[in-house]
């Protein structure tokens, strides 16, 4: 599950429960409800007092790992807060950004969860400041951006807030690609909620992102978002040709495939060019980072990403595997790097680059087409490894 999806699912699950909504509404009206968990509320307020004392200390270093109730959003128990308490949590969270302490990220994560669970439109200025915050060597920066965008999406999806919807739409063209990805990803998720819609202007923005965004990840996620909403996904004509250069150590090859062909066929072409058997599992890291599983195909669940690509002459309404997606639908551009990982035991990692994209196929050429092979074919099973 993508990080943004995980956050959005958790927050919406908490914020949408009848007990939480009733308690939240009641406490915002300054009335007491029996549904409010007094014990957990007291733990949170005591924790906020302890955090504030720590931040007020001179110097405000260390000690956050000893605070009670700040183990991250997955371990937090969310309780309704009134407006003054919510603003206090926001102020403390902003102070944590500047603190130097162990467990700072966990504390911030927990505070962000409490703010997001309230689904309060008045928190939008805080979210803007969180996205704008920059500090040197901030290891939590990427997570903060994803969490904040998920919180805005939760607010939009749970309350139908027009301001939150507008905020999320604006983030689709944010300067930072992580924010753009999270915004697109979140919009894809709120489509499944009763109040989640895809306005026409947002669909048009997604079309532009899918075709013209300078970063691959937003293009890739925008295509997913469009397809989930039943919109046309940009796709290269079937006549187009992709040339890929694959290298493993000093050995390299060049293969060409039609835009209508797939990553599965690309894997076969590379292995054939290297003279290797295809008898092991493999995967493609579309961003060149195997750690970011959002862009690794086939996905662990191998669920279809696009139900219908909208390409002329191609009907894909039968829930294809992720590996059945045509290359022309992935949003690849010239120079784009990927990793082809083959044989999870021996862990062969081929560096793959889109060397060129041609508008038309060469006459009398059958694709996949092996253009060049390695000058010296590397052994798939070196004798030394067989003897071990």
Number of domains in the coordinates?
A: 2
Radius of gyration from the alpha-carbon trace, in angstroms: 25 Å
- Helix tally equals 13
H/E element order: HHHHHHHHHHHEEHEEEEEH
Q: For this structure, what is the CATH class of the largest domain?
A: Mainly Alpha
Overall geometric form: elongated
By DSSP, the count of extended strands is 7
Proportion of strand residues: 5-15%
Poorly predicted segments = 1-5, 18-36, 303-320
Strand order of the largest sheet: 4-3-5-6-1-2-7
The major pleated sheet works out as: 7 strands, antiparallel
Alpha-carbon distance between the two ends? 38 Å
Main structural class: alpha+beta
- pLDDT averaged over residues: 81
Summarize the amount of helix as a percent range.
40-55%
Polypeptide structure, described:
The protein has 388 residues and is α+β, with helices and mostly antiparallel strands. It folds into 2 domains: 3-228, Alpha Horseshoe (Leucine-rich Repeat Variant), CATH 1.25.10; 241-387, Structural Genomics Hypothetical 15.5 Kd Protein In mrcA-pckA Intergenic Region, Chain A (Roll), CATH 3.10.290. Helices cover 43% and strands 11% of the residues. It contains 13 helices and 7 strands. The chain has helices at 3-15, 18-28, 38-56, 83-98, 104-117, 124-132, 141-159, 162-171, 177-190, 200-212, 216-228, 263-274, 383-387, and strands spanning 241-248, 251-258, 282-285, 296-297, 337-342, 348-358, 369-372. The protein has a 7-stranded antiparallel β-sheet with strand order 4-3-5-6-1-2-7, covered by helices on one side. A hairpin with a 2-residue loop joins β1 and β2. α9 (177-190) packs parallel to α11 (216-228). 38% of the residues are buried.
């Amino acid at each position: 599950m993508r990080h943004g999806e995980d956050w959005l699912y958790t927050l919406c699950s908490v914020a949408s429960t009848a007990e939480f909504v009733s308690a939240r509404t009641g406490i915002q009206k300054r009335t007491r409800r029996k549904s409010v968990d007094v014990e957990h509320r007291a733990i949170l307020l005591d924790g906020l007092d302890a955090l504030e004392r720590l931040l007020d200390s001179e110097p405000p270093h260390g000690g956050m790992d000893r605070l009670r109730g700040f183990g991250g959003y997955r371990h937090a128990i969310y309780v309704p807060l009134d407006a003054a308490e919510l603003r206090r949590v926001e102020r403390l969270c902003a102070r944590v950004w500047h603190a130097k302490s162990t467990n700072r990220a966990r504390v911030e994560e927990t505070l962000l969860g409490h703010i997001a669970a309230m689904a309060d439109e008045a928190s939008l200025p805080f979210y803007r400041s969180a996205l704008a915050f920059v500090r040197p060597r901030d290891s939590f920066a990427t997570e903060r951006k994803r969490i904040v965008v998920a919180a805005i999406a939760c607010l939009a999806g749970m309350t139908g807030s027009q301001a939150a919807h507008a905020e999320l739409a604006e983030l689709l063209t944010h300067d930072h690609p992580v924010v753009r990805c999270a915004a697109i990803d979140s919009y894809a998720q709120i489509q499944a909620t009763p109040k989640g819609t895809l306005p026409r202007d947002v669909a048009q923005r997604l079309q532009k992102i899918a075709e013209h965004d300078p970063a691959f990840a937003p293009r890739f996620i925008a295509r997913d978002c469009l397809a989930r909403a039943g919109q046309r996904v940009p796709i290269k004509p079937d006549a187009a040709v992709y040339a890929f250069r694959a290298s493993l150590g000093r050995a390299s090859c060049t293969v060409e495939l039609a835009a209508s062909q797939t990553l599965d066929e690309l894997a076969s072409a590379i292995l054939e060019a290297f003279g290797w058997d295809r008898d092991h599992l493999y995967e493609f890291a579309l961003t060149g980072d195997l750690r970011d599983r959002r862009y690794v195909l086939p996905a662990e669940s191998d669920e279809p990403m696009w139900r219908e690509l909208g390409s002329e002459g191609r009907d894909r309404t039968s829930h294809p595997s992720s590996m059945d997606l045509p290359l022309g639908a992935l949003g690849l551009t010239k120079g784009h790097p990927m990793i082809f990982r083959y044989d999870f035991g021996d862990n062969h990692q081929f560096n793959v680059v889109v060397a060129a994209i041609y508008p038309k196929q060469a006459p009398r050429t059958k694709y996949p087409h092996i253009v060049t092979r390695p000058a010296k074919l590397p052994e798939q099973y070196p004798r030394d490894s067989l003897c071990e």
